[in-house]
Design goal:
Layout: H1 6-34, H2 39-42, H3 56-68, H4 90-124, H5 129-151, H6 159-167, H7 170-177, H8 180-192, H9 195-214, H10 221-230
Length: about 230
């Protein structure tokens, strides 16, 4: 195994991270358009051009700092605007719009799992690009898994919170939706006290194990090789 420089780590990580957050947001806008709201389309946000989705803090500053200080590269994009009142069935359709983002990450995690497997095969055949390829796949699987699981947390304004608001009956739905302005502060608190990691990591670990089994990869493959890349 080679020792990667900071530049190599950036080159390996940047494509999986940018695609994970960009496709996630485009999926929200695309489903909203199909259900009657063309806000994202009119604002030019239904594009995979990452420039349209860059958030200076979430797409550049946070991932850059994490990578520079030896952490796993992670981030977020500008949310795609959705005018829920324009949807044909606003309350019910909200769930499908919200679910689109995590589903996009699910499909991308599987795709990166396949890329990881191809990279391993090439590496074992002593083909130079194989190692960088499977490390890129490792990043792709991890970041998409983390985004998918995190966003399914039933806390507004996360996608899981929007799904919950859509499914609950009127009065209860309204009460839960009122949490949204404080959701980010609740999330920060959960992170600070270590509660978020305790809640999410069992689900993340289970999904990673399923991907490993599906592509005949060794147990804990993604955790081991992400540690070697970013450790």
């Amino acid at each position: 195994m080679v020792e990667f420089s900071l530049l190599q780590k950036i080159l390996i990580s940047v494509i999986p991270v940018i695609f994970a957050i960009t496709v996630h947001e485009v999926a929200h806008g695309w489903v909203a358009m199909k259900l009657g709201d063309r806000t994202a389309q009119m604002l030019g946000r239904l594009t995979l051009n990452p420039v349209k989705h860059i958030d200076p803090i979430g797409t550049i500053l946070v991932p850059g700092m994490l990578l520079a200080f030896g952490g796993f590269m992670f981030g977020w994009a500008k949310p795609v605007p959705v005018t829920f009142q324009n949807l044909r069935h606003p309350k019910a359709d909200m769930a499908w719009v919200a679910l689109a983002g995590p589903l996009a990450n699910l499909f991308m995690a599987i795709l990166w799992g396949a890329i990881t497997k191809v990279g391993v095969i090439l590496y074992k055949a002593d083909i130079a690009m194989g190692e960088a390829m499977f490390y890129m796949g490792v990043v792709g699987v991890l970041v998409n898994t983390m985004l998918m699981i995190l966003n399914l947390l039933p806390l507004p304004p996360l996608d899981g919170g929007r799904i919950l608001v859509s499914l609950l009956p009127g009065p209860l739905s309204w009460k839960v939706s009122r949490v949204e302005p404080y959701g980010i502060f609740i999330l920060i608190g959960l992170i600070y006290f270590g509660i978020l990691a305790m809640v999410l990591w069992p689900f993340i670990g289970l999904f990673l194990a399923l991907v490993e089994a599906s592509f005949y990869l060794p147990e804990n493959f993604f955790i081991i090789y992400s540690s070697r890349l970013f450790g």
